[in-house]
Design brief:
single chain, alpha+beta, Methyltransferase, Cobalt-precorrin-4 Transmethylase, Domain 2, four-stranded antiparallel β-sheet, 10 helices, 19% strand, Schlafen_AlbA_2_dom, Schlafen_AlbA_2_dom_sf
């Protein structure tokens, strides 16, 4: 509960999911009668077909159709209310109760969430106003007996919730597995992204689906069509129009060699949109690791892709990239994928 939700509820009329009571149950004064009222309320709200939690709020008076927030002086502990219905309702109901303070006044709240029970709830014992095995539900702002058809509808509703719960459990497990795979740096990102694209489709996340698809298949050369969506693919590379041959036995690390190149004429540092697929990224990383970071990856491109104003005919530019460049980009991809998975996990479950 929070103030925004409390205000929304208290400005709404009573309904099949909302009930206001001026006073709390008087368990000390008339125990059997008050116990029965609590049991019937829990039964009725639990059996009501809905998509959101139902609420009973104590400390609200209704005067000529107007709601007045009066508050209450005390509210029983949740454990007491749970104990009072424990053996009086089957299957055991799912609810929680608590005090809530709003504008200096104390209110009691019973919150009954949507829960996948195995069957419609009823009481195994006779109580005041409650028949053994009778199913009750909310009709508008009051409780009533469920008809045979309504009992069938309630049963089907619970069955659908069970199916949804099973499906959610499967998705939750798949999300957890994908998070484990992406977090394991011994696992290729291409494997994790293959899992992610299916989850993005199932959980209706088109942006993440697009991200996974483009990472797996590669981007086009036109960065402008992606904008900030592909910022993680920008690399600071060393470019040169010269055709050179690197000594395969050089002793410098890749980063050191790139710095050395930048001290020479016709070599410059340029920002480049690396559009290759994740498999090609992994191939480059694997190659450079095999060389113990004593090599560079080289890509030849049309110089107009790097220098749009170039007037060279069929001019080419060679781009040199080191292991750390690929590793940094690879980790950016991992970070984006993990964030999307964790966001989906929080929003869905």
């Amino acid at each position: 509960m929070n103030d925004k939700l409390f205000e929304t509820l208290t400005r709404s009329p009573e309904s099949s999911i909302l009930d206001f009571k001026e006073r709390c149950f008087d368990f000390a004064g008339n125990k059997e009668h008050e116990d029965a009222k609590l049991v019937k309320d829990i039964l009725s709200f639990s059996n009501t077909i809905r998509e959101e939690s139902a609420y009973i709020i104590f400390g609200i008076a209704e005067n000529q159709g107007k709601i007045e927030l009066t508050g209450i002086t005390g509210f029983p502990d949740d454990a007491i209310l749970q104990q009072k219905v424990k053996d009086k309702i089957f299957p055991r109901p799912k609810f929680k109760s608590y005090s809530y303070v709003y504008q200096g006044l104390t209110f009691g709240v019973i919150e009954i969430p949507v829960h996948a029970h195995t069957e419609p709830l009823s009481s195994p014992i006779k109580m005041k106003g409650i028949e053994i095995g009778k199913v009750y539900l909310r009709q508008g702002s009051s409780s009533s007996d469920a008809t045979g058809r309504e009992v069938i509808e309630i049963s089907k509703w619970f069955e659908s919730l069970q199916i949804k719960l099973s499906s959610n459990n499967i998705l939750a497990s798949q999300l957890a597995d994908a998070i484990v795979v992406l977090s394991d740096r011994n696992q290729a990102l291409s494997i994790g992204l293959s899992l992610c694209i299916g989850l993005a489709i199932k959980l209706n996340n088109p942006d993440f689906e697009r991200f996974c698809y483009l990472e797996l298949t590669g981007y086009t050369e036109d960065f402008d069509q992606y904008g900030s969506f592909a910022d993680h693919r920008i690399m600071d590379v060393v470019a040169t129009p010269l055709s050179i041959r690197l000594n395969p036995n050089f002793s410098l690390s890749g980063d050191a060699l790139l710095k050395h190149m930048l001290t020479k004429e016709h070599f410059s540092e340029e920002r480049f949109f690396f559009n290759k697929s994740i498999n090609e990224v992994e191939g480059a990383i694997s190659f450079l690791r095999e060389k113990n970071d004593k090599a560079l990856a080289a890509y030849e491109i049309d110089d107009k892709l790097m220098y749009p104003e170039s007037d060279r005919i069929n001019g080419k530019v060679t781009l040199y990239m080191g292991l750390s460049m690929f590793n940094n980009m690879y980790e950016r991809i991992r970070k984006i994928a993990l964030k999307n998975l964790l966001d989906m996990q929080r929003s869905q479950f």
